Amino acid sequence: MPFAPPDGSAFRYHREKVVFSCPPGHRWLRWAKLGRRSQKNVLLSSMQSFFAYLAGKAIFRRRARANRRGILDAMNREHGYTLMETLVTLTLMMILSVGGLYGWQRWQQQQRLWQTAVQVRDFLLFLRDDANAYNRDRVLRVGQDEVGWCLSAEGEGPDCASGTSFTLRPRWPGITLAGVTPGLGFYGLRSTAWAGNLRLQSAAGSWSIVISHWGRIRLCRSDSAGGCQ
């Protein structure tokens, strides 16, 4: 469709086309009726507007691309880790894990030693009560077999495999019987005992079970100044 701008009307650019508007009631004038100078001015203005639109569109695309690249770079800087940071994090995790594992093993060894000491003390209390109740002697003997050590108070020789209530095996492995007083036992006829002690030892420390002449049994920590129970 040929251009037909009205006389004295303004024109506007819309969607890469030059459109002329005129007030209502006016008739479109033909392009041929315009003078050569007016036609030249209209074409020049249209070309300026078109190139200005293209330049603005290119600038907008360039800025949008730059903003998108800046956002991606910021995300990579915020959420990414360098190789050195990853190695330092892994090293710290390994150090903390080794320290925690060592502490847990140490605590486990202490608990097992304590439980074995309490087991031996309760066994001696049982022997004392049995000797006093039936007026008989209960002399403690130490046995040894392929499994480990045991305490027995029946017969002439200790039998670790008997499995009776007068035979004791340690509840946990790794606990050694470091020392025992010879002839240690309870005598029910006079309700007395042969004074002495037993010492249990492991990597976590040692405990002693002390027996007095009157049959009093105490549990003492060997590596401390006091703390008998």
Task: Give the topology, please.
Layout lengths: L10 E4 L2 E4 L15 H44 L3 H52 L2 E3 L1 E4 L4 E4 L14 E2 L7 E5 L4 E3 L4 E2 L2 E7 L2 E7 L5 E5 L8
Antiparallel strand pairs: 1-2, 3-8, 4-5, 5-6, 7-10, 8-9, 10-11, 11-12
Membrane topology: Single-pass membrane protein
Main location: membrane
GO cellular component, one term: membrane
Word description of this protein:
- It is a single chain.
- By secondary structure, the protein is an alpha+beta fold.
- It has a domain at 110-221: minor pseudopilin epsh domain (minor pseudopilin epsh fold, 3-Layer(bab) Sandwich).
- Helices cover 42% and strands 22% of the residues.
- It has 2 helices and 12 strands, in the order E-E-H-H-E-E-E-E-E-E-E-E-E-E.
- A hairpin with a 4-residue loop joins strand 4 and strand 5.
- It is rod-shaped and about 145 Å long.
